[in-house]
Fold each of these.
Amino acid sequence: MTRSPVLELRGLSRRYGQTTVLNDIDVTIPEGSFTALLGASGCGKSTTLRIMAGLDRPSEGEVLLSGKDVSQKTTHQRNIAMVFQSYALYPHLTVFQNMALPLTMRHLSSLGRMPFVGAVAPGSSKARNLIAEKVGAAAEVLGLTDLLHRKPSSLSGGQKQRVALGRAMVRDPVLFLLDEPLSNLDARLRVKMRAELVALHRRTGRPFVYVTHDQSEAMAMADQIVVMIGGKVAQAGAPRDLYDRPASRDVATFIGHNAINLFQPADGMPGLHPAADEAVIGLRPEHLSPAATGALEANLETAEYLGSEIILALRSERGTEIRAIAPGDYAIPAPGSPVRLGFEPTRLHLFDEQTGKRLEVAS
Amino acid sequence: MIRSFISRAWSTLFLVAGAAVILLPFLWMLSLAFKPRDEIFSADIQLLPSRIEWSNFVVALTETDVPLFLWNGFVVVAGILAFQILFAVPCSYALAQRRFKGRTFVFGMVLAALLVPFHVTAIPIFLGFAKVGILNSYGALILPFVPTAFGIFLFRQFFSQLPSDLFDAARVDGLSETAIVWRIAFPLAMPAATAFAIFSVTAHWNDLFWPLIATTDPHLATPPRGILYFRDEESGDDVGPLMAGAVIITAPLVLAFLLAQRKFTQGLAAGGLKG
């Protein structure tokens, strides 16, 4: 990768009293990237984001911004913008004032920020014009021009979201941090805002770090996903790498729209792979489909017809549950009848039974 | 239907009776203030004066020190309120939204201070002020009330309900902690501040105890203290102007309360002190 890193976390740990929230993590955010921090709630992804922002301090390790250690600097000094899950708009200020506040703090002296007196402070009218211009430009990009004089309480969820983005955008930060920004929106708006976020990312050209627990959101938007499990980085890489070569059983479970089938050695599935009696075998439902000459046989329990595809739930002779996906035109046999399933051997994942780590397929 | 009507009628009746008992001295004050001299001491009880007598007010405002007392009251009450807010708001912000060692202990001390009546500390404060030599000054009337446990408690309850994301956002936007207090936290706490202001202003406008102890100079007399001078020296048994003076002194509070009534109840509800 030729892109130089904007932000690096090195050997970072965070402890609160006895509990370790982050345990020796390394994360690199390259120039212009869209990174998703993906993990279940409580895995430390929000803490990681707060440490990147400078709202929290690491117990150990370094935070490097453009190669320089910034552990002791505030968010504002780092020039990092952050969008909060709850948007955190100031309820008593108008949309314009909300978006202008970071600029006010930067461009106006403390005298210039005072009410009444500020209007006559030297240099303040020039600074005010500059602020109005920048806020106006950001508002136009986000379609907020008509709302600038409204208070946040009179805005819809999507509009609040845009104001929060606008407040982050106006000061042209070196890095955008977004903490589950779409989780408070309804499903349809969420998909729309996804596209807007990606467009905004292209337009600004700045790296985005996006915290989410929704793997489909991460897969859809990010070019780098950092999967965090239990305060550690389980795997970091491009979405396709994570899907094709998950580093561990846990990552394999987390990534992918359909939950992966995991066969323990005790399940006795010898038809799958020569190593089936000593390793855990992972096989995604979408790579397992009915085939007349398939290596596996199982009895059909239920079938969910989704139009484009059919999700089959089956049970093997030894009682192991298997999920497979059949094409939409597949003729569903009666429940209980045996179905032969085929798969591509390259799609098989092997994991160590004890550690859960990926084993390279020998065959 | 009828039963609920009867129970409502009963409760209304009790409320009216209670209100009448409480309001009677107040109404009597109003009535006397507007009565001509010869009607005040008449043997029969008459609530409404036969004609409105304005001269009581003219006497109270021109021939006595009531305007001075009002001015003193204003200076003391405004001074107390301004300093109380200046210190209580940052203090309660720190207690509600900052993490530091001994935070729980400090808040515990604030709660404990709520239980101590002012009369307990009055004598030590008086002796201290006497040593420093600042008795008989506006300072002596204002200083003892600047640290307010009640104010800190009220604002803390309000601030602890605000989402901490809001303050993190302000930090991201480059506000210092002081700027967060005055630009974000305080404007949001306006309902609580209004409620607190009414408590503070009423208590100190009406306070007689401390001004009686801390000042002997008539030129520093607050309104209740002033009324005492008034009765002794100027009017003797001239009740009309005395009552007119009392009306003038109570009027600002009544007006302020009526104007801020809605904000007041809002602030109490928001501060978690319902009831």
Note: The mean pLDDT of chain A is 88.
Amino acid sequence: MKTQKASITPLQFMFSITCFLRSSSLLSSFFAPISKTDSWLVVLIASVVCLPFLWAFIMLMKAFPGKNLIEINDAVFGRIAGKIISAIYLWFFLTLTSLNLRDLGGFVGKSIMLKTPQIVIITVFILLCAWAVSLGLDIVTRYSVVFVILSSIILVVTIAATSNHMRLSNFLPILRQPMKNIIQSTNIVSTIPFGELVIFLMIMPQVNIKPKKLGRYFLPGFFLGAFLITLVVARDIAILGNTITIFAQPSFETLRMVSFFEVLTHMEILFAILLIILFFFKISLLFYVSMLAMSYLFRLDSYKPLILPSAAIIVVYSLIIFKSKTKHLEVGRETAPFMWFIFEFLLPLLTLIIAYIRKLPQKEKDARSKEAASA
Amino acid sequence: MKLSRLLLCIIIIMVFLCTGCYDIRELESIAIVTGIAVDSTQHPNMIKFSVQIAKAEAIAGKGGGEKGGGSGQNSPVMMMDATAYDLEDALHSLRHDNSRELFLHHNQVVIFGKALAKQGIGSYLDALLRGHESRLEVPFVVADGDAKEILETELELEKISAVGIQRMIRHKAEISKLFGTNMLLFAAKMMENTASSVAPIIKVMDEEKTKRLSLTGLAVFKDDKMVGELNEPQSRGFAWLMGKIKASTITIDTKKGKAELEIISSSSKIKPNFNDGQKLDIKAEIEGFFDITELRGYENIEMEELLDLLVRMTKQEIQKLIMSCFKTCQNLNTDIFSFGEYIRRHHPNQWEKLRPRWDDIFPAINLSLEIDVTIEDTGKISLPPNLKGEKA
């Protein structure tokens, strides 16, 4: 197995986490209709709820420095069980990539290029991502700093430009709805953007960082991302009020409302640009992670030959994954949060527990030598 | 390396060749819709859907002063209509019956006929909100009569009447934001549990030779059905009660003279009193700031006395406007003031008790007003100039 060189700086790692989360703020329509005007609080609650799981991620990263998720699975569950679990993870990563690609295709197809067939949009986009992935992870993560700054600037500008439409009373009353809604919504937020951070377990070995300092970069990145999502959701609620529940893309409609002294109007194009940029980042990262997982699973020297064939599979997968947008929303609200829960929280936790029972990080050297002997 | 360069070349060529292949929309292939009018028909389930289409060539080709005569060849706009069961259906039949593609992005105004508004506009509003092409901040008005007739009325100063109507609404909304509504605001208000929404009414004024459009009063909706109207003074009362009136004047007519006061700004605060959940009292604290713009009469009066008188009379006038509006709305049982929503937001515990009986509670609300009037400025002169000269 080839060795990966540590090519990502801690700062890039931190901003990658932020950027990854920020790109999920575009999916507020999954949870906004459920928790309505309390959605911003839900994001905050979810970020606290997620902390134990993030701790599990960090513990795993610390316990197995220099190993990615596939290798950790092998080490913890043994060859066969580890491979099965890794294969399931590979499916999970590919599904995430396809889902995000479908989201992007859906948005561009419905809002910008109405008549262009979705397959064209999706194919062109995945080719771009494939290019980025073939150049390597550091190319993708290097953009994260720029993207976070860019998206934050746009966020600040749009908050300023829509401030004349904002009504703070839209937030009232706070938490006056059935607990069930809040819990369901929290579950969605914690699984769909936050838990997806599990993919960073895959790229961990490439981060040039001392295990001790991990938390110092992981958590600020996470909190910055969560804070940005909260801001986006809060801005949308302040402007749209209770109508936030009916829109498929609340942020898009919010930016349509921009009218700053009749000069700056219709800033929805900013949203479109932001969406495409952030999805580029997210899909590239997910794509990279899928490719890496695949190459490790099949013990290939390089993931590069896999890129184009996988891109083709992902295109088809993202086209057939849902019959329609409504089905997508339904699954995003009802099924995914529970299914993702397994991959994002239960499995890492299980891994950690088994590793603890088997006292694995200490035995690690023996395992490696045994593996080398058998290979 | 060679391959990647080749690829790059192909991509660059593609970028230039494939710009908008699918979504090409040149000016000469689209019909720009500037206004939409929806009317009811004889048939109870069918609507008449009319669109005003701007003829780009006619507008660009002509100089400013000339006016297109009627529906003649040179008119800058044309009307098209279709009768159908619903809005999308009508749009489709217009699309297929047309040499050009309907382009809705630049739609300026949506007008509903009064008869249709009384039947309910919810489903049509849904279609307009849902369509990817339509914009939410498009103002919408209710025609006092036939909506198509409004769109067909030619305005003296505007080539495209829909643009003119949109400007009229915007102008009117300078007095109070409440006088102009758009799809989003209207929908937001309809989604509040108990609130009723309002929309401006537009009317054709028949003058000797020409026709003129005028925005007077507000149509009051209960759910999605129009149930009544507020006349112009009543709608001012509405704006006063909500504390959202400015850039307008108030006329004070007393025995001693007449005064015009310009409203600089206003605000209001609502304080509900629940009386153990049986009855609701609402106290509104209203504040208004004024400048004097015109005084007539008021001879032999001291400045202080005059200001006192004006303040007193202004308070009375505002009280009259508000009460007239409030009584009308209580009779219609329409909570256009969002009192219910205010209580839901700020007193959620009380709201749960009131909500089931809101329809009984609202008409019985006892509204008390506390009006505070400040005259800030008298303009460049204080007392009116005594033009008759000093008579000792």
Note: The first strand of chain A starts at residue 259 and ends at 260.
Amino acid sequence: MELFPLYNSLRIAAISAVIVFFLGIAAAYYIAKTPRVIKGILDVVFTLPLVLPPTVVGYLLLLVLGPKRAVGLYFLDTFDIRLTMQWWSAIFAVTVVVFPLMYRTARGAFERFDENLADAGRTLGLSNTYIFWRIRLPYCKQGIIAGVVLSFARALGEYGATSMIAGYTPGKTATISTAVYQLWRTGNDELALKWVLINIAISAVVLLCVNLLERPQRRRG
Amino acid sequence: MLYVDIEKRLDRYTLKAKFTCDKASLALFGASGAGKSMTLKCIAGIATPDRGVIQLNGTTLFDSEKHIDLPPQKRHVGYLFQDYALFPNMTVQGNIEAGMHRLPKRERRQKAQELIAQFHLDGLEKRRPETLSGGEKQRAALARIIASSPEVLLLDEPFASLDTLLKLELIPSVRAIIEHFGRETILVSHDIDEVRQLCETVVPIADGVTKESENTENYYRILKNRYQNLK
């Protein structure tokens, strides 16, 4: 059994989870500081990929990154790099689809933060950077870790946008989810079932991790 | 010397606080929601007044006309929060050292050790705030503030979250800390007994407006005459 789809899915999910970790936290942190109207608009934009069909996200991404479109053409002309149909093209798709999960969990965690702690830090002369990394993030640690793991789990399962932007090339862009579809479509039910079981096993383990992380919600004194 | 003359529009009233505190402890005394805490927040730079001036020992912390508004980090103000606001992810020692993170590590350690002894926190250095009693939290928070070498102490209802017995026990130790500190201290309180034990001067505040400062005992007599049933 060719294990490339497993390896490819894991690296795409891992890289996307790292990207989304920083983007989601930054978005959640800065949105709290924006004026109300802008906040409302941004929140809708940031959450939209969660409710849009992944095929719509894929279509929109192709509008920008496709080889004949603005950004895609630029990269093709200047760097001779094609942004679609590479294994890493899926990272664009997965990052966009998964971003709302990280953003919303991080925002929820930040909203529970006790702002008095930040104010106390300021009066003690601590810089805003120190307060963010040493007080705010540790305080919201559980929510943020849960968000990353959840994002990773969702990233593993992304199909719609990935298949549109990275396609299915065995040994090159195939992921577990695209492999399952192709194997089923070509009548290779046996192998498809194997991948289905692998996928269920990985996702179950990841969700178990999320639950273990969320359980010990210690009381904050 | 701390000089405050500020105005800030709030939901229910406009805060108008004006007073001077000179090398002693002064109490802002008034009912809950009278604007006491907001006044402290303006002094600390956590909240911004609409108008006015705040000066501390010759430094202008805030001046609306000159567009001066120093960030809290540069005001050298020690603020004791009602719930003490100890950092839950740090130990007692970590909390105390956080206020001196610019000092070299060895110096910081040593100063923290001194403060731990001075504030009777021995044996609690490695504990997290959530495992401390109310009184211990208060001492840890005060030690952390003193560690940051403030020029003025702002105590926001320091006994509000403690029960009466513990409060009676802790007032003398807080008085000792204020005396040892020896500089301007502002206490915010709605409890006249507390004020009598900690401050010689009182500035009454009602619906956001401060009155002339008074000697605490004189003010207490006036209150007592006004409300005969006050014990």
Note: DSSP finds seven helices and twelve strands in chain B.
